[in-house]
Design a protein that fits this description.
Layout lengths: L1 H23 L8 H14 L5 H5 L12 E2 L3 E6 L5 E3 L3 E2 L6 E6 L2 E5 L2 E2 L4 E3 L5 E3 L8 E8 L3 E9 L3 E5 L2 E2 L3 E6 L4 E7 L6 E6 L2 E2 L9 E4 L8 E8 L7 E15 L4 E3 L6 E10 L3 E6 L2 E2 L6 E8 L2 E8 L8 E8 L4 E9 L6 E8 L2 E9 L4 E10 L6 E5 L11 E9 L3 E11 L10 E5 L4 H9 L4 H5 L10 E5 L2 E11 L2
Parallel strand pairs: 2-11, 14-20, 21-28
Antiparallel strand pairs: 1-4, 3-9, 5-6, 5-10, 6-7, 8-9, 10-11, 12-13, 12-15, 15-18, 16-17, 16-19, 19-20, 20-22, 22-26, 23-24, 23-27, 25-26, 27-28, 29-30, 30-33, 31-32, 31-34, 33-37, 34-35, 36-37
Bound molecules: 2-acetamido-2-deoxy-beta-D-glucopyranose (4 copies).
Length: about 500
């Protein structure tokens, strides 16, 4: 019984295929349920697995010739604008009694080999030729074979829906390497009947339409900042808008920098000089002092590392003496070019770096960090209200407190200022000399409501302002008189723990 059922299934499948086959040949076949029941009954009657096909098709007369048919009823063609396209009518068993009609969608375009539309040429083998196709030629084409009325459907697509051109060449979904300083034009084109809104993005961030006039991006004086994945979307309002991408790489000469332009050292100690660089293709880096390339020796060792997106070469200068002081060059070069950065090694303190600040009303507390293995003897703070011509200066103090091994000092200063945009910078002195001034730090003191700010200025400075400093024993409060404003300034040097 089980075997019987299996056979029935097989029969059903064969019948369905048979029907599809019959329909596809455009020979009308009745396919209502009644018929299927009948065939199924046949299966039970004959129990024969191999003759399914012969039962569904009416017996052919041995003398007659097989009817024409298509091996493929649907063909999909894609062409680029400008191509010459042949659309075949790939009919088998074509007889002298058969005729071919060509349709473009609903319109007749060729009668046999005689073209009716001027866009096409008929060919001897019943194919048609469309020269120099344009997006307007993209359509559904049908080759109809008479009198059987069987047809082959060819869908012609012209052009990608979207392509990205670089200087006129199609680079859609490819990668491209540019050279620093080059000039290139990226253009995104859509080939669609509906109008599209071209949208560009770089590394996932939408580019402003001002940068992309009519879907064109002009890359001028190319550098590392142009590296990335460019995506173009032809927004036609549909759920599946056409899109494409290109990956742009840029070859550039090394970009060399250091985070410590001045390195403090102590006689007999060691110092590390840092050279950070980025390059594509990869670069070679080395240090130069007094026009000599430094080699690994008793005096120097060199370490290469990778640090926060750039490569770093570190020069270790050992057992420092006066002749080691001075200017070091870090030189990096690759196939595109070379660059250098200067690093000063000295006994002076390093340039102070702004650390952080707090503002409470018109009271500001500023912190800088300074490296000096030698004790700091002095610090100087200059500050200025934007728009005024003079700098005010606070010079303070010696301190006994320092960390010999760490060599990091913290400078803290608190003062009361009138509202406005202020600048401040500091420099420090150690037993050998002065550092450079730190870069300007800008900060804004906001005005409260007008009445209270006048009151504040006239009021004597509150006690807790003095106590807010660190290490009360070392505090040297300084009163600075500015026109119309009294300032209390406390500058402190403090050990960094
Ligand atoms: C018909 O002729 C053209 C041109 O000779 C040829 O490219 C095409 O492949 C032919 N088609 C068939 C179905 O042979
Ligand atoms: C084909 O013709 C039908 C009916 O005229 C029309 O709706 C359809 O848009 C046409 N298709 C193309 C691709 O022109
Ligand atoms: C760092 O150097 C390595 C080879 O030493 C190289 O592969 C890499 O690209 C470099 N990175 C940068 C940011 O230059
Ligand atoms: C100085 O600082 C270093 C590291 O910053 C630390 O290891 C050392 O203990 C400190 N020395 C003193 C005396 O506090």
């Amino acid at each position: 019984m089980i075997k019987m059922r299996d056979t029935t299934c097989l029969w059903l499948i064969c019948l369905l295929i048979g029907q599809f086959y019959a329909q596809s040949q455009a020979s009308p076949v009745e396919s209502d349920n009644g018929n299927q029941e009948e065939y199924q009954d046949d299966d039970y009657d004959y129990g024969d697995e191999d003759d399914a096909g012969t039962d569904t098709v009416p017996p052919v007369e041995p003398a007659s010739i097989d009817p024409p048919y298509f091996e493929q009823e649907f063909v999909s063609l894609r062409a680029k604008p400008g191509d010459n396209v042949v659309i075949n009518c790939d009919v088998r068993n074509f007889q002298l009694s058969n005729a071919v009609m060509w349709y473009k969608n609903q319109t007749i375009i060729a009668n046999g080999q005689i073209a009716i539309s001027n866009r096409v040429e008929g060919m001897k083998n019943n194919s048609i030729l469309i020269k120099n196709v344009t997006p307007e030629d993209a359509d559904e084409y049908y080759c109809l074979v008479l009198p059987e009325q069987i047809r082959q459907h060819t869908s012609l697509m012209v052009g990608a829906r979207l392509s990205i051109l670089c200087d006129g060449l199609d680079i859609t979904d490819r990668s491209q390497t540019f050279k620093q300083g080059d000039h290139h034009k990226l253009e995104c084109r859509t080939y669609m009947a509906t109008s599209t809104n071209i949208k560009w993005s770089l590394n996932g961030h939408r580019l402003e339409s001002s940068d992309t006039e009519n879907g064109v991006i002009i890359l001028d004086n190319i550098d590392e900042s142009n590296v990335g994945v460019y995506q173009c979307l032809g927004d036609d309002g549909s759920r599946d808008p056409p899109h494409g991408m290109v990956t742009i790489d840029v070859h550039y000469s090394p970009k060399v920098s250091t985070h410590r332009h001045h390195v403090n050292a102590i006689e007999g100690g060691h110092a590390e000089l840092y050279c950070n660089y980025r390059a594509n293709p990869i670069a070679l880096s080395f240090f130069i002092k007094d026009a000599q390339t430094l080699q690994i020796s008793e005096k120097y060792s060199i370490k290469n590392s990778f640090h926060e997106g750039h490569n770093r070469t570190t020069l270790l200068v050992k057992n420092i003496e006066a002749s080691d002081l001075g200017e070091y060059l870090c030189h990096a070069e690759n196939a595109i070019g070379s660059n250098e950065v200067k690093i000063q090694l000295s006994y002076n303190p390093e340039t102070p770096q702004f650390e952080d600040m707090t503002i409470d009303g018109n009271k500001v507390t500023l912190h800088w960090l300074v490296r000096s293995l030698q004790p700091l003897s002095e610090a100087m703070l200059d500050y200025q209200l934007t728009g005024s011509y003079t700098w005010s200066t606070v010079t303070v103090l010696k301190t006994q407190h320092h960390n010999q091994t760490g060599g990091i000092w913290k400078i803290t200063h608190q003062m009361e200022l009138k509202p406005g945009l202020w600048h401040a910078h500091v420099k420090t002195k150690n037993t050998h000399g002065w550092s450079n001034f730190s870069p300007d730090h800008e900060f804004q003191i906001k005005s409260d409501d007008a009445d209270s700010s006048i009151d504040d200025v006239d009021m004597p400075p509150p006690d807790d302002l003095v106590r807010a400093g660190f290490g009360v024993g070392n505090v040297a409060p300084t009163l600075v008189q500015l026109p119309g404003i009294t300032l209390l300034s406390v500058l402190l040097l403090r050990l960094q723990l």
